[in-house]
Amino acid sequence: MIRIISHNILVTRSKLNTLYYNLEEKELPKDRDHDILRDEIIMLSSTKAMAKNINKRNLRLAHVYKEDENQFIEIITNQLEWSAITIADLYGFNLLSIAYTDQKVIL
Q: Please, what is the average pLDDT of the chain?
């Protein structure tokens, strides 16, 4: 969780046992982004979050339906300004494979 404290952008999948307080539920667009089921601003509430002093930071929790995998996932990020669909897209975006592809092109 050092990434949160150092202001890096964090986009990761939530664990099933993640404890949090819901601070705000953001309104979803009615005409697009139907894969986004819920979009919340949260604070982590576990003792582990308190021990690492990240329990006072607002985070974003996007509840997403992944059609290709036919499952629901929850994605946590410290980026509060982006849309929920952008967060979901970034979670699915594999930067490592792009870096590898770029290296092959350079060689």
A: 80
